[in-house]
Design goal:
Strands 1-2 form a two-stranded antiparallel sheet. With 191 residues, it is mainly alpha-helical. The protein is 71% helix and 4% strand. The radius of gyration is 22 Å and the shape is flat.
């Protein structure tokens, strides 16, 4: 049994490394905008697209909101995971509120307080694990979208956002705001 547990642990670690490598390779192609690999490698990288964990690839923002732009996608991909993490922490937070209520109105119930402490500890551990794994898995996709905010392409002497050519890269208040937002999220996610 111990040997099987060790083998399973080794397999999980190697599978995780392979999955993250697949994410990185797929993101390199997405950021560079080209897939100039020779044919066996090109097909291999194309099959790695499943590892991107980009739900907006399956349900584009434009389907939900027809006026959506690249900046809408940026907000969804940066705020959405934080909201998902908040939901992962809800059981622990609800139990913490229950404990605070118990401390304020029923100080003598030591048995219930001990049960709540144990439940808070359990759900906090679950939330830490789940949110860490979730954020680790979506990090390449979110980081790529953040990086795409800074990628401009010159067309006819003018610079436009590569991901959505209707947005100009020339200095404006709107562009400055989105660059600041992406910079801030660049510190939130990768760091």
């Amino acid at each position: 049994a111990r040997v099987l547990r060790r083998m399973w642990s080794t397999f999980k670690a190697k599978a995780f490394v392979m999955f993250v490598t697949a994410q990185v390779l797929e993101q390199v192609v997405e950021v560079s905008g080209t897939n100039d690999y020779p044919e066996p490698a090109r097909s291999f990288v194309n099959t790695l697209g499943f590892s991107n964990l980009d739900f907006l690839a399956y349900v584009p923002a434009e389907c939900m909101y027809p006026e959506a732009t690249f900046y809408t996608k940026l907000v969804i991909k940066t705020v959405g995971p934080l909201v998902a993490c908040l939901f992962m922490w809800m059981p622990a937070l609800c139990l913490l509120v229950m404990k605070l209520h118990l401390n304020m109105f029923d100080r003598r119930n030591h048995e219930r307080r001990a049960q709540l402490d144990q439940s808070i500890q359990h759900w906090s551990t679950v939330a830490i694990y789940a949110s860490t794994v979730f954020l680790e898995l979506i990090l390449p996709s979110v980081s790529t979208t953040i990086a795409q905010t800074f990628m401009c392409e010159e067309i006819g002497g003018k610079k436009f956002l590569r991901e959505h050519l209707i947005h100009s890269c020339k200095h404006s208040d709107e562009r400055s705001w989105w660059v600041s937002y992406a910079t801030g999220m660049g510190f939130v996610y990768p760091v």
